[in-house]
Amino acid sequence: MKKWGSLALTLMLGAGLVLSGCGGNDASSNNGAAATSSPASTATAGASTQDTLVVGRGGDSASLDPAIVTDGESLKIAHQVFDSLLEYKPGTSEVQPSLADSWEVSPDGLTYTFKLHPGVKFHDGTDFNAEAVVFNFQRWSDPKSEFKFEGDSFDYYDSMFGPDGARVIKEVKAVDDLTVQFTLNQPQAPFLQNLAMTSFGIGSPAAIKEKKANFKNEPVGTGPFVFKEWKHNDSITLDKNANYWKAGLPKLNKVIVRSIPDNSARFNALQNGEIDLMEDLSPDDLSTLEGNTDLQKIERPPFNVAYLGFNFKKKPFDNVKVRQALNYAVNKQAIIDAFFAGQAQPAVNPMPPSLWGYNDQVKDYEYNLDKAKQLLAEAGYPNGLPDTVTLYAMPVSRPYMPDGKKVAEAIQADWEKIGVKTVIESPEWATYLDDTKAGEKDDIYMLGWTGDNGDPDNFLYTLLDKDAIPGNNRTFYVNEDLHKLLINAQKETDQAKRADLYKQAQVIIKEDAPWIPLVHTTPLLAAKANLKGFVPGPTGTEYYSEVYFE
Amino acid sequence: MSSYLLKRVMVLIPVLIGMTIIVFSIIHAIPGDPAETILGQKATEQSKQALREQLGLDKPWISQYFDYMGDLLKGDLGSSIRTKTPIAKEIVPYLAATLELTVAAMLFATFVGVNAGILSAWKQNSWFDYTAMIIALIGVSMPIFWLGLMEQLVFALKLHWLPSIGRMDQRDPVESITNLYVIDSILAGRWDQLWTVIKHLILPSIALGTIPMAIIARMTRSSMLEVMNSDYIRTAKAKGLSQFVVVYKHALKNSLIPVLTVVGLQTGALLGGAVLTETIFAWPGVGRYIFEAISSRDYPVIQSGILIIAFIFVIINLLVDLLYAVIDPRIQYK
């Protein structure tokens, strides 16, 4: 009798084990059969080329209408579904024709006339034409537009073309079916750069009218991929646009973009063949990646800056000598070696070297503790700073700063050597942004920026001009000469002259040292070795249309 | 029974109102400007002000509370600020995903936990007992994050037995009807996908179910031990019934009451507390939904999300209480 009991129990207990055991065996065979793209099947069956791309990224889109969002994850999808009048040449921030084949600018810089590409259709079958362009721009600029749905705000339109009451664009007019004319209130140097942004992708007027508020969930553009399905926080599926107006594109049949928040889990999924391309590889995983011949490393061009900002509201950081002294006391190369796995370069200026207008004549404050001590002494602090300095370190990981706290600790140790004691604080992100914006609690803060549109204005004016207080200039640094330069640069339409103005601006900023520019990072992506044609874009978005598998 | 049920349900109303007040106060105590967080560093001052007005953030919070309750009574949970979609519609797939995972995790936890507990009690002080209880001790203190990554490493990366992330094979998906993918694949008659869906469930449900499994095992063991020493069990044994019948038929039912409590409480805890598991396994569940809402200060989502979780928690407790009454009829008269 006892035997019966034990037998039954063993069976029940064993069931669980047996289940997972069997599961395993069947799983491996099933995997190969079901998923045509598992590593085994692609490696062996070279003849059947994979035509579905599965991308893994850290977060989900907020909305699929590019005009109402400011986050990169949303724009990334919109980039595949929508075309703008102009676009950036893949891998650069250089402008090239897209829906507009060509354009003419009036000598006074106030009228832009665009010739549109003929024969383009939206995904819903309606025609793309000048009227559609006018419709979209009216939707974005008119605060009372009936196509501005509940909760919508066109932030990038306001930010790039001025808020209501100070609009840069006066009028958008359809001259004929394929000619559209923009009249400006004042010349805007980065106008074409701005037009090329994903945010100004042209949506189908018919779809906007029909879907109304739901357009943000079911976008309709002219892009290489057609929106198919959105499972929130899980995946977004895009199908090939068979009638795409660029011949031969897209090369893929289907794109699935999955949200996998944890970096390690995402890398596991890539190694396991569940995804083909992953974004934001941790520098820690780089050696594993390089040891795996089935995978390849992809580097996004550096188009960002991470920096420490001095709070001018707090003494003694209003003193330029103190700021310069602390600049001398940061060992950027050591930080890069320790925390960025070499995937970064020391930052000298507030903008990345790949951007035009970068001043490579500006010399960085080298790592020199004696110089730092000497400057502190000149500032009246021969024994270091008397008070403990509050250093705000970012609590979140960003492409330009994977681990803010560790970097802050390294800097803390360096500063200790010149008699500057620091306490590191990392409040939760929303509080962090609030505090640094108010400038009451932090003495020095860490932050960064990724460029939006390939124009120096988007770094220098946006981050360091007095107009950006309160807002992105959290140092409260005001320099009238710099302000004049930056404003003149905005109005100047000759790019060579603008570049010169920005170079002068960088000299002033270096001397005043409102920041310690830390690094320009090279964000890392990883993909299967047989993935080709993927050109990483500096601003964080790229076309999947040229991607194919070998 | 019905008056007992009615009484229990009536008690829920003040509990839920209390919940709304607590959630509302906590959310408004979080520092940070929601407009800035929601719209991002790149938004203009003007659109931030517009958002504050639209959300009523410029009003005193008492009046914000009454506005919210008014909408709630009309069945309007509000709209997410981030995605600008009605929450009542948006939350359904997340709830379904979490429900599926929770059920799988609790099936695992209960099945393994109860059986291990019984066997430990039966073979008290044997090697099995010691091993099981040591495993239970480790299980309770296991960091889910670590366990999840280790599972991926072993079963997905090294052995290639199981998928490491997600809910199904997205390359060839089954159309969502109920959002419970096990049921959806059965409805669609897609047996291949059903198998894939189940495989996707295994690793996360083990990660999520390990702690409750350990708690249940320990609870079952001590509860069984107590019952096994009682007179009626001695009588049953004396009658010459097989040990299996004694344990599974006579002892188990009476030791189940405390176990049931634990199962109920753990199920409730898993519903909201699955954030880590959902993050590691990229499981689009309600824990992550609320977590992301918190980091982007999506007030309406935080409020309604927590309220829904609280509501489900309360309902589970109600069900547990009712089940007590079924198992032990004396309870409802107390």
Automatic annotation (TrEMBL), chain A:
Give GO MF terms, alphabetically: peptide transmembrane transporter activity
* The keyword Disulfide bond belongs to this UniProt entry's keyword annotation: no
Q: Could you confirm whether the keyword Transport appears in this record?
A: yes
Q: Which UniProt keywords apply?
A: Signal, Transport
Q: Which GO terms describe its cellular component?
A: ATP-binding cassette (ABC) transporter complex; periplasmic space
Region described as Disordered: spans on this chain: 28-48
Domain Solute-binding protein family, residue spans: 94-467
Span of the secretion signal?
1-20
Q: Which GO terms describe its biological process?
A: peptide transport
Its domain of life reads Bacteria
Q: Give the similarity note.
A: Belongs to the bacterial solute-binding protein 5 family.
Protein name per its UniProtKB record: Solute-binding protein family 5 domain-containing protein
Instruction: Write down the species.
Output: Paenibacillus sabinae T27
TrEMBL record, chain B:
Keywords, A to Z, come to: Cell membrane, Membrane, Transmembrane, Transmembrane helix, Transport
Q: What is its main location?
A: membrane
What's a Pfam family in this record? BPD_transp_1
Q: PROSITE patterns, from UniProt?
A: ABC_TM1
Q: Which residues form the ABC transmembrane type-1 domain?
A: 95-324
Coiled-coil positions: none
The places in or outside the cell where this protein is found are: Cell membrane
CDD domains recorded: TM_PBP2
How is the protein disposed in the membrane? Multi-pass membrane protein
Ranges annotated as spanning the membrane: 9-30, 94-118, 130-149, 256-281, 301-327
Q: Would the keyword Glycoprotein be found if you checked this record's keyword annotation?
A: no
Q: Which GO terms describe its biological process?
A: transmembrane transport
Q: Does the keyword NAD apply?
A: no
Q: Which GO terms describe its cellular component?
A: plasma membrane
Family label: Belongs to the binding-protein-dependent transport system permease family.
Q: What is this protein called?
A: Peptide ABC transporter permease
